[in-house]
């Protein structure tokens, strides 16, 4: 996003035997997407964070008769840009991973053809941002939020921040690290959350970021550096000597920290400032000029089916969007509920994103 899933989770997931197929090695036949209409191969183009349990993908292949090949195309922004450039002769049949911050760019460029996936009635209406046109299908959701190091705040007898306003208070001076909005999905999401909170007129979000800058916010290029090097609450941050107890990450980061700890703790070592969250939803769509439309439609049906939806949380650390999907017990044990995340219409994001990024860069980095 954009990539909701964390790099540490991917590394562990790979070790647990989850499927992260590539176009070169995912198909026994060795055929590419150009042959998919004839070969019974269906090709999914995705950002780098795709992961699924082997038995789940095998179940789909057995039932449908299609062999799934996955082509990873960098982060979400890169994958979308490549898909737009190649839309007349697409690399695959379905694109997964375009999120609400990039959605209008994909739709305005005619990237997808309409298809109403079977089971769409089970998907929450709040996630159906292209409702009625069905050019994309919601697949997963999550929240970009500030995380905090519980031990730091307990040791310093300081109440963790709970809102955007709190982060600008003197008590939290020099404690927050965030990502560059021009190079990072969570960084951009945090900016959009502040724009949704404070507006884009007058002082608005710009006035808020002036306060954050004066309060010592640290900006780094990406999530990996912020979370696994600068943040004192993560396993990686502890090893790296990170000294910032507040970081822009995801509401699913505490479950990931806890689940991958050995032994697992009773409670996660990190918490979420739930008043700082921005909802991120990922979509998939049938690419225009897809070679294997029938296989692509079957794959979209599968992505919102209960089996795949319930498989996602422990693989990609995102939440299902269907009403009939239950969270895995380990995930639910540490899950952080966010009742009222900030949201923004894709068109408003599209109309303002570039200008806001430019303004933020000038204001915060110069």
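Sequence proposed for the structure above (366 residues):
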């Amino acid at each position: 996003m954009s990539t909701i899933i964390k790099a540490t989770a991917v590394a562990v997931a790979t070790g647990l035997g989850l499927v992260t197929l590539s176009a070169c090695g995912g198909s026994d036949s060795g055929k590419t997407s150009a042959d998919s209409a004839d070969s019974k191969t269906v090709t999914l183009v995705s950002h780098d964070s795709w992961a699924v349990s082997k038995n789940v993908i095998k179940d789909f292949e057995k039932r449908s008769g299609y062999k799934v090949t996955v082509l990873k195309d960098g982060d979400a922004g890169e994958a979308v840009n490549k898909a737009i450039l190649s839309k007349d002769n697409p690399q695959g049949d379905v694109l997964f991973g375009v999120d609400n911050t990039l959605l209008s760019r994909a739709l305005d460029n005619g990237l997808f053809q309409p298809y109403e996936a079977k089971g769409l009635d089970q998907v929450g209406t709040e996630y159906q941002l292209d409702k009625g046109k069905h050019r994309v299908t919601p697949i997963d959701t999550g929240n970009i939020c500030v995380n905090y190091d519980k031990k730091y705040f307990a040791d310093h007898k300081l109440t963790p921040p709970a809102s955007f306003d709190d982060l600008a208070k003197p008590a939290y001076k020099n404690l927050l690290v965030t990502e560059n909005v021009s190079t990072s999905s969570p960084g951009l999401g945090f900016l959009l959350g502040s724009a949704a909170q404070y507006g884009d007129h007058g002082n608005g979000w710009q006035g808020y970021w002036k306060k954050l800058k004066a309060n010592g916010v640290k900006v780094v290029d990406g999530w990996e550096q912020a979370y696994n090097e600068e943040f004192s609450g993560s396993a990686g941050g502890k090893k790296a000597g990170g000294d910032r107890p507040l970081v822009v990450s995801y509401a699913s980061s505490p479950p990931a920290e806890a689940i991958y700890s050995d032994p697992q703790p009773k409670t996660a070592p990190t918490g979420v400032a739930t008043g700082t969250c921005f909802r991120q939803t990922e979509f998939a769509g049938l690419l225009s000029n897809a070679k294997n439309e029938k296989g692509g439609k079957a794959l979209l049906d599968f992505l919102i089916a209960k089996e795949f939806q319930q498989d996602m949380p422990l693989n990609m650390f995102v939440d299902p969007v269907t009403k009939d999907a239950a969270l895995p017990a380990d995930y639910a044990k540490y899950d952080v509920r966010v009742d009222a995340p900030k949201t923004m219409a894709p068109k408003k994001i599209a109309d303002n994103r570039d200008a806001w990024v430019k303004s933020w860069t000038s204001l915060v980095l110069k």
